[in-house]
Write a structure and sequence with these properties.
Layout lengths: L1 H22 L14 H14 L4 H17 L3 H14 L3 H14 L2 H14 L4 H13 L2
């Protein structure tokens, strides 16, 4: 009996690990980028976010990727909300840069400048971040 319980638990762990591995594959809409429509990417990322099956790193990626899908759909408010989650999980230059772009889309140039400044602090050699911050300053005048 004990061996069958342990075997069942082992199968459950392997099953969950396999599902998490699928989340990282290029065939999964949430993790495949723009190969799928915006609606499909949002729905799939939402399913993964709500599943409780992702590691913290992959959860951050799912929020970030859903934010990109929302931004592609011109829904900057939802994109910003997802980028906020992704940044809380793991701050990175790419996540700040995307949120800065979304803030710029909403006309919130001060926050865009702040985010592009974070990018510059994290990656001072990123010429695009310097350019983006300059544009945000100019647009906010």
């Amino acid at each position: 009996m004990r061996n069958s319980v342990l075997a069942g638990l082992a199968c459950a762990v392997v099953s969950l690990a396999a599902r998490a591995a699928v989340a990282q594959s290029a065939s999964d809409p949430c993790f495949a980028g723009a190969a799928f429509s915006t609606d499909v990417r949002v729905a799939d990322c939402t399913r993964w976010i709500q599943s409780g099956q992702l590691s913290a790193d992959n959860l951050g990626v799912a929020y970030f990727n859903r934010g990109i899908a929302y931004e592609d759909a011109h829904d900057a408010a939802r994109a910003i909300a997802d980028y906020n989650h992704a940044i809380r999980i793991e701050p990175s230059a790419g996540r700040y840069k995307n949120r800065g772009n979304a803030y710029e889309d909403t006309g919130d140039f001060d926050r865009a400048v702040d985010d592009f400044s974070h990018v510059i602090q994290l990656t001072p050699g990123d010429a695009g971040a310097w350019y983006d911050r300059g544009n945000a300053y100019q647009d906010g005048l």
